[in-house]
Amino acid sequence: MSLPTFVEPVNFKLPNAAPGSLDVQWIHGSVSPKHNTDPDIQIHFYNEHTVIMRQNMAVHPEAPFMFLLFGNDRAVLLDTGATRSPDFFPLRPTVDGLIDQWLAKYPRDNYSLVVAHTHLHRDHFEADPQFFDRPNTVIVGKTLEATVQFYGFQHWPQDKVSFDLGGRVLKVMATPGHEEAEVSIYDPYTHLLFTGDLVYPGRLYIRDWEAFASSIERMIDFCNTHPISHILGCHIEMSIYPKLDYLIRTSYQPYERPLQMTVAQLQSIGEAIKAIDDKPGIHIFDDYIIYNGVPDRYFSYETMNPDAELGDVC
Ligand SMILES: [Zn+2]
């Protein structure tokens, strides 16, 4: 008979933001994808309870970021990347290894995993099947209804709902505009704000202007009333040079700018929205580029066909 493990809970309720590091050089592809020597998945510990991962750009040009947050009762994986095959993209063993490593230091029984998505585009959920047979695992369904139901939204997209990992109570906010089921997630432990593909240093593809404008307004309001350490989206598509993005579907991005963005940059998106006033086109700003009403065929293998062979863009 095994005795239950005595668990000293981790205190995730601190008076200030838990320290974390973004002192990292992200893998960013290579001149020749064939000769790329980067790991399939880069792992960076923001702190010991918060992991940021990036997919290798030679495996998929979207090179999305994924996040693993640990709480006392369960961990959440935000997004599963752009590639289904575990041979090319071993996300499941990577995440299992990280959880084992965490549990070795913070042992507890029946620790579970929630596999969630910032939004429902293929470069953010493609490796879900790697988790289908994982014990103690819940995968959030891939429809707007399933998203609303899982988090318990009563008044989508206005309300903010709590998502408790065990002492680490995330705030989930509906932020449609790029995609109808998109959520942004605030972590009161690190003060990090995860914004999916709504806000990141790159091409912001808007599919519903009104929804996008209200989502950004709600996020700005939220940032005015909550301390924010960094805003973290899911891609980098711009260089350190203002206004300069990389070629779409490139597999090499030298001189990338950092992933993290500031509240001031988010506020500037609010100003940009007023200036653009729903005019269709490609609107270039220093730190992001707004694609409004640009037909998808100009920039992507699209998302709307779920049977497409290739992973979609953003
Ligand atoms: Zn994306």
Task: Summarize the entry for a quick read.
The protein has 314 residues and is an alpha/beta fold. 18% of the residues lie in helices and 23% in strands.
Indicate the topology.
Layout: E1 41-47, E2 50-55, E3 65-70, E4 74-78, H1 91-105, E5 112-116, H2 122-125, E6 137-139, H3 144-151, E7 160-164, E8 169-174, E9 183-187, E10 192-196, E11 203-206, H4 209-225, E12 230-233, E13 260-261, H5 263-276, E14 281-284, E15 289-292
Parallel strand pairs: 4-5, 5-6, 10-12, 11-15
Antiparallel strand pairs: 1-2, 2-3, 3-4, 7-8, 8-9, 9-10, 12-13, 14-15
Helix pairs in contact: 4-5
Can you tag this structure with a few keywords?
314 residues; alpha/beta; Metallo-beta-lactamase, Chain A; six-stranded mixed beta sheet; 23% strand; globular; binds zinc ion
Task: Tell me about this structure.
Helices cover 18% and strands 23% of the residues. With 314 residues, it is α/β, with parallel strands linked by helices. A hairpin with a 4-residue loop joins strand 9 and strand 10.
